Amino acid sequence: MAAVIAVVGSPALVAVPAIWMFCADEQARQWSIVASLAVVLGCLATVALRQRGTGHRSGADIFAELRPVPGNTPHASGPPALPARLPARWPARLRGAAAVFCCTTAFLGFVALAAGDAERPAPVDGIVAEGGVIQDVRVTSVRNSERHNPSRGHDFYTATSVVALPEARTGRSVPATVSTNTPEPLRPGSEVTVLYAPSKPVLGAVQGKPGPLRASLDGAPLTPGARTALLLIWLLGAGFLGGLQILHSGGFRTLTRWTKHDRAVRGRCTGDGISQLAPATDTGAGTGTGTEQSGRKGTSTKLDQLVITTDGGEVRFVLDDATDGYAEQLGAEPLWLCWRARQKAAQQLTPAVLVGDSGWALHGQMVLTEAERLAENNETAIPGGTGAPVDAQREARAWDPRAGWPLRVGRGAMTAAALALVLAGLLATTSLGAGRWWAAAGGVLCVLGAVAAETLSTAWRATEPNASDEKDPPSSATAR
Question: Which residue(s) pair with 316 in the sheet?
């Protein structure tokens, strides 16, 4: 269900600002945007109906449902062999990057909707209907000229001017009064660029720069300059933030096939929590505690972690998101903790994976100093070597509990998102005048509210007390 919603809803959301910026036909633009917003709203309605039918689920319930069903492969003796190939991690990374891209698109989309107008002003609409053209005309008189000195930018002059509009049929000039905005003061005999109808000059004229006038004539809601600027900000901003999301989740490094640089050790999950990873420079020796101390000031990194207990001590298995629900589902099941031991300059985390005896694989990262400590104690083995056999016939299924977000997303987040869609539809189909920026600000606040509601909901669930019977939390975790 999550995949279907993502495949249908994400393109529909991205299509809204694209249609707004590039579609010049007013009716086609409005109907296309309304249809796209209806698709996204339908996805939200589908999630709400599904939750109503099955009930809103907690993290632990969803994690249990999405856990791969263990196979019935018997193990002769000792721990089961590792699979020769691990499931890929790209679906989870793609989902995170797509979520960031869609949120950025929503923010920039409201800015683009506010910067343009859904409908032509009534005078411009009448001129265009009569075959309007853009032409330089002569000024015959100027009054009420006023100089403006803004805090930013260049000075400009406004005035009420009378211009001579040539009539196409007779060739005579018809006077028309226009409000002018020019970088230099106007005088009788000056020329200004206007949009008017040569076949019916009595409709008047609209003065402006050629670019905005051309956009009004073509029916585009944005000027070419504004469209180009917003498009660059949208693509570069969304691409940059999506890339940051991928880097935050471990970049493109992953464990799918074993190499000579990989290591494995047996262990069990004994807890979860949050800790801080100190900067790479002047880092104190790893002690297995939840917070590494640094000898100098620097920015530490928050780690959402599972605590894996091995014969050589406790180590942290770092996840990309909150760890609520994982430890309860893992319980005390024996598992393989595997990681890539090859270290690059200033690298503190390395790709890692948990492989359960029941046939699941959970991707994450591991702190290198703790991995090196296990290697020093001769607790590790090379996959495919003595102590960590590999079975080409064995398969492991990816355990990705975050794929169950439609079952646990909060109603507050969905309500805020639905309200944002309504405001977007209003901006795309109605000319609100000065109220456009207020409506756009409300839409941005709704998007922020939806993200904050889901983030705070997840954080609240992550700080609920554990229902386990452990008397003392693990030394390397902050008890939830």
Answer: 307
The SS3 of residue 131 is: coil
Residue type present at position 64: A
Strand-pair category, 360-367 with 397-398: parallel
The token pair at 321 is 């998101």
Exposed e or buried b per residue across 200-233, where buried means at least 16 C-beta atoms within 10 angstroms of its C-beta? bbebbbbbbeeebbebbbebbbbbeebbeebbee
pLDDT of residue 206: 87
Q: Which two tokens stand for residue 418?
A: 């639905």
Helices (H) and strands (E) in the chain, counts: 12, 14
Write down the pLDDT at residue 37. 95
Give, in order, the Cα–Cα distances in Å from 43 to each of 1, 420, 425, 448.
10, 14, 16, 19
Q: Hey, is 77 helix, strand or coil?
A: coil
Lowest mean pLDDT among 37-41, 156-160, 216-220: 216-220
- Going by DSSP bridges, is the β-strand pair 335-340/349-356 parallel, antiparallel, or unpaired? antiparallel
pLDDT per residue over 19-49, tens digit each?
999 888 888 999 999 999 999 999 999 888 8
pTM: 0.71
User: Within 13 Å and on the Cβ side, how many CA atoms surround 98?
Assistant: 19
Q: Return contacts of 345-353, CB within 8 angstroms, 24+ apart.
A: 346/280, 348/277, 348/280, 348/301, 349/250, 349/277, 349/318, 350/253, 351/250, 351/253, 351/254, 351/255, 352/255, 352/317, 352/318, 353/86, 353/255
Residue 432 has pLDDT above 70, yes or no: yes
The two beta strands, 390-391 and 82-83, are: parallel
Alpha helices in 192-311 (DSSP H): 210-218, 224-248
Give dist(CA 366, CA 346) in Å, integer. 14
Label residue 358 exposed, middle or buried (CB < 10 Å: 0-12, 13-18, 19+): middle
- Using the predicted structure, report yes or no on whether residue 67 has a pLDDT greater than 70: no
Tell how strand 360-367 and strand 349-356 pair up.
antiparallel
- Which 8-state DSSP code applies to residue 335? E
Compute the chain's Rg from CA coordinates. Answer: 31
DSSP letter for each residue of 152-181: SS--EEEEEEEEEEEPTTT--EEEEEEEEE
Residue that wins the pLDDT comparison between 331 and 430: 430
Q: Using CA atoms, how far apart are residues 12 and 130, in angstroms rounded to an integer? A: 36
Whether residue 422 is predicted with pLDDT greater than 90 in this model: the reply is yes
- For the record, the structure tokens of 100 come out as 């960031």
Torsion from C-alpha of 115, 116, 118, 123, nearest 10 degrees: 130
